[in-house]
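Lecture notes, unit on protein representations.

Consider one protein chain, 465 amino acids long.
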Amino acid sequence: MDVVDLARLQFAITTILHFVFVPISIGLSLLVAIMETMYVVKKNEMYKKMAKFWGTFLIVNFAVGVVTGILQEFQFGMNWSDFSRFVGDVFGTPLAIEALLAFFLESTFIGLWVFGWDRLSKGVHLLCMWLVSIGTMLSALWILAANSFMQRPVGYAIENGRAEMTDIVALLTNGQLLWEFPHTIAAAIATGAFLVAGISAWKLLRKQDVPFFTSSFKLSILVALISSLAIAQFGHGQAQYLVDTQPMKMAASEGLWDRSEDPAPWTVIASIDPTNKQNNFEFKVPYLLSFLSYSQFNGSVPGMNELQAEYEVKYGPGDYIPPVRTTFWSFRIMVASGSAMILLAMYGVYLWVRKKITQPNKLYLKLMMAGIALPFIGNTAGWIMTEIGRQPWTVFGLLTTQDSVSPTVSAGQIMFSLISFTTIYLILMGVLAFLFVKIARKGPTDEEPEEVQIHDPFGREESRT
């Protein structure tokens, strides 16, 4: 493998593994904030117990995930220095704000939340968790603002061969961001909700702490349904937006080589032959691609061959068709996982309405345990489709991936950092999984620390916990 392929592989692996931690923080912080809000409003100790128990998962994930975020940013200087030079004035601003504002907001108030029980008033303590939740979402906003610039560059000017920011408002109102941000946040919330629901299903299957995990399951499955439906809605809007701004990506995700017929059918599965630029087998649903693209049952969609010719005129000679198989199947994996999430959540809410949460069939509980993985699969597949479908560009229309790597780094150096970073990430994931299982096995506890009198040899008595 050459330098470019190794650098891409390292960035892909570290980003995928890092994004295991991020959505858990976003989703769990919101759920814990809702639980504590219900405790403050209803004055029901069960919700306080829930906030403390599920907050433990959040704290562990936050602590372990911080390390993965630090390693993530090393790569820009190590492997992608030409990219950093070209977009540093644009890219650096949202990344700096994310680190200095959003991350410190999260870390400060999660510390106050952890140590503030019985020290802060209920309202102030609750506010701390809501600020943590807002901080996680603001972090995502600034990171996605940078990523959206790579998908659709706006608010910049080319000066001395580099992109310089001219309008930060344009960066924050980028149409790509306006669809990508809510889609990503909904997916993160679903990740936290399915984690809580899956662990609750496991405990209900074992008939442990049934009242506690029944309450946890009810809340999380409702949030899971709302967020899963939101994923579908915002994803649909984002796909329609890409038809105009990145038509090559959408054509690749549909395995569409030549302009479609009108109305356009949607390809469910296909045997793709990128060498001969054709599909050897296709199973299609009539009219559906036109509806997905234009919200109407008519209209054709341009194919990759047509777009390739247009891009050669606009950008010069080159191959502008992304890896079609990867883009095509990652899109379908994302859609399949999202559909399964909606079905599982709908059935869970049905059980809640019918008051059968405590007596669902064992198969459903086992499916919910396995369903913990669905948001992670969908998140990963969606990110792969987004990034691979943009190739050969790092910054669409401005900078290719080939021209983005560091000119002096060697394949051996990247291989060393690739192995090192991957090992660290896998160890951290193992630690996270071990701690999550340990916390889940232990379950919530009603025991309060016992206050005892400790005799002081100098004649003083003091209470110790």
